[in-house]
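Thread: histidine kinase, structure

OP (GT): Posting the sequence first so everyone is looking at the same thing. Length is 640 residues per the record. Can we get the structure tokens written out before standup tomorrow? I want them in the notebook alongside the other entries.
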Amino acid sequence: MATTRVLLIEDSEDDALLVINRLRRSGLDIEYERVETAEDVTRALRSSPPEIIISDNSMPSFDARAALVLLHASGLDIPFIVVSGQIGEEPAASLMRAGAHDFVLKDNLTRLAPAVQRELAEAQERRERRRAEAALRSSEDRFRLVAEHLMDVVFRYRLGATPRLEYISPAAAALTGHSPEQLQNDEELLFAAVDPADRDALRRSWQSPPDAPLTVRWRLPDGSLGWIEQRLVLVVDDGATIGEGVLRNITEQVLAARRREELEHQLHQAERLDSLGQLAGGIAHDFNNLLGVISGYVRFVLEDLGEDHPSRHDMESIDHAARRAAALTRQLLIFSRLQPSQPETVDLNAVVAEIERLLRRTIGEDIDFRIAVQPDLPRVFIDCSRLEQIIMNLVVNARAAMPDGGRLILATGTDDDGHVCLTVSDTGCGMTEEVKRRAFEPFFTTRGRGQGSGLGLSTVYGAVTEAAGTLALTSQVGVGTSITVCLPASGHSDAEQPSEDKDGPGARGDGERVLIVEDDDGIRRIACRILSGAGYSVLDAATRSEALELVRDTGQAFDLILSDVIMPGMTVTEFIDAVQESRPSLPVLLMSGYTADHTANSQPLPGHIPLIAKPFKAAALLRRVKSVIEARRVDIPVHR
């Protein structure tokens, strides 16, 4: 009969002998250790776990419940029987719920031996069942590993001082370019396909497989870089440790994940762009009003000053600064798509000539700046301010690529398809493939912190795309960069799209009555002065409610309402509806610093209402007012 190891938790030596003798008289061969403290129980469970534990219920410094806690903490499956004197039914039931397998009273020890034998037999049955389940799981796992991954590389190796590849499936040829026989004869051929940086990790995994799948970079037979995922388990087969695993080509999944990350990054950038657009829209209205007031009064003063007046240069400097401020606002609004678009037929060469002086001041004297224009270019249909911004941004970007000087060439011409082209080339540092790929991304910059916003080329991209044009970029590190903008030749004649920057007889009024609706006092006074000085009869209102009262007054007959878009109270759409309800034929011209379609809070504007961008020049306002009034007289639609 086999010896049964018993851990006896008992503080009384006499009671311990009583229990042991009872078991031995029942025919059990007992080897026991008596303990009476938690420390001794913990030590016994760690050093030599018993086959069964018999415990007194209550001792001066320890009890059966505390012993059960220690047993559960050890993770061992050992039967636990409580032997005690008198105890109530509820305490006994509580011990059973805590994990005790049986409860025997000391005055009825005849039950002890049968209880021990029963619990030993049940414990043995549990152990055998666990072993059988583990073997079954191992068999099922091995079968599933092969059955579910036949399209992948299945391999088996014997672990030892040097792992030996016993089997590898034919699919390995697609990953390595070698047959299974070649790989089994020389397993280094398998490791040679692994990227050198990941090779050691794969070798280590064969000795000690990680819990999670291992992904390594892999050089595929065609020379391309791929990613391989390894799943590996160790099993014992006839006393030997065997590694069984699968190699799966996950290149497509990795590339898809990277693409998803890139799209998420683009979404994040788009959200940043949207936030920037909201910020720009929030400030554009008030800022453009201020610029409009400054520019307007400067022009009034300049009209009154002679060419030789000592203050004329100062006023022109103020006017220039205001126009620069408007250009900066325009760049931000173009980027955030809040700038009104007013395309017209434009002579590219004329625009280049007009801003050449500014370009040369911007570039500096250490750059050899050359301009080569092709004469008699077809005109293009684009917002002139945006074309200026395209040229300026390309030149500034090229200048930044040549911190130590170099050559910068701005050229115009046409391509084989008749497009009008603008090319800016530099002899700067050039771009890597990664930089070229991201050059037109919003916020992307290679300059140091505080030296670039990352908006220059992305602004160019947005403006060119809006004008139905294309961009081409060529660059070589250490040689330089060339960016070409191609715009469709305009199908509009100058007569169809007159310049609003040039005044003329047709821009003056002949006593027509205009109602100006603007809550900004400065802009309202500027508009009143421009129109009244050009021969119009002008009334003004600071609120839309006041304007509606004037419109509904039968004694007032207006030829045009000039109204700001953003004003307190009713929306611009509600205001226009109310005007048309009272005077259906009365035209309205809107003023705004936002797009021709939406305000800063995304409120849509009526699509049939003409609009002029703020800040505006006097000539532009006069021409716009004249065209809207004349359009009503001949009953033709007015476009924005």
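GT: Both are above now. Quick notes for whoever picks this up: The chain has five domains: 3-127, 149-249, 260-335, 344-487, 505-634. The domain at 505-634 is CATH 3.40.50.2300 (Rossmann fold).
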